[in-house]
């Protein structure tokens, strides 16, 4: 009998040492404090004791990894009248345990079942597994919630009727149908850049939602490709995007010696072309921002030449006059150029041809004088843009 007890204690000690080693490893690898795991195991053992031994009393489990013991103690309140023997003990019975007990004290007595060690080992394993899973999910959530509004590389893993699922390494992100570019085809194992719009907690772990249409994707691509933007020398002031087709961005330089548009375009268009390629041919107009709405609206309608911009402050609107032959260029296909310019500037834009404006008596105006000194190179560039535009149509 003594040998059996010694053998049982030795086995318990070995199991406790094994559990302690596992907890220490988890603390080092997963960053889960050992005390947190021990507390969780003890709470789970209380539940396991009540479930497996059909007990309803108030108990406490003491997990001592140093000596390899897992003991269960009943906890009873010392009362004058015992209403429930599982929860209460009389003062007389309490003093038999320890003469120092008084009314209102709590008496603890060991009630560890004989085969509690086996149940305890199974419970501990389950708790550790669950806590490790929760900790990993928590760490993944913290990692990706800090990357909201950032761009990441992913691999298309699978597709269903509506969503695309993109592998980001530790987590699978959702690319909803309304965040997909209609002109793009997504194939399994294809590498794509996506913009993280939202990270949420769920019962199955963190859920990451990404986008290919968000204006933030365009902003991040320029920050990656243009050092002047990354360093803060050039700032992107606004973006108007119709994903997959055309976008406009306005930029300003905080150094008068730096050309903001040229910095974004790059030598022979190399910088902007890299971004266009990443977006599968989406056309990008880069214009210079100005605090003067007259100049800003004129710039925003690029590549069209502007003769006059009249501001209506009360309505937050403008009337823009363009040469007759560039009216279609200013408006754009299906009104796209004017629509994007309005989004970019925040002003409503009503475009008139020069002939119509003269007939209405609104051109020339005093404001038009600032647009009359256009050099030949500017006109030549806009003529080339116009020819390209007509080819696209």
Explain this structure to me?
- This protein is of the alpha/beta class and 393 residues long.
- Helix content is 41%, strand content 25%.
- It is built from 13 helices and 15 strands.
- It has helices at residues 2-29, 34-52, 91-97, 116-145, 215-225, 227-230, 260-265, 270-278, 293-300, 327-331, 336-345, 354-360, 376-392, and strands at residues 59-64, 69-79, 88-90, 106-110, 151-159, 164-167, 172-175, 191-200, 207-211, 234-242, 246-253, 283-288, 308-312, 317-322, 348-353.
- A five-stranded mixed β-barrel has the order 5-6-7-9-8.
- Strand 13 (308-312) and strand 14 (317-322) form a beta hairpin.
- Helix 5 (215-225) runs antiparallel to helix 8 (270-278) and helix 9 packs antiparallel against helix 11 (336-345).
